Amino acid sequence: MKTPKIIFTALLMCCFFTGFATIESLNGSWTGLLKTDQGDEYPLLYNFKIDGDQLTGTAKTPKGDMPINDGSIKGDTFTFNVIVNNMEIDHTGKFYGDSVGVDISLGDARSHATLIRK
């Protein structure tokens, strides 16, 4: 009877440490290109920093580097916002290991971009 408990505990610990390693590898610089429905293109550059379940860092904007606000991470998904010109731009993302999918919304306008490690 002890063997199934030991195996289950070992598997559970492996899942925990694998998830933690995945989250930590989101750290660093990520770049991409945001294309709007109107045909405009905006370069994206984020520098993510993970501390537990908190996501911080910076986003490069035409106004310079802006702090990432209200960032949180759960599993391989995360949320944060960046304030540019008094406008709160919400981000929801998913980490895929070698890329990041991010949905960006400002009011009713929504866009999607794929980021790769810089």
TrEMBL record:
Residues 1-21 form the signal peptide. Keywords: Signal. This is Glycoside hydrolase.
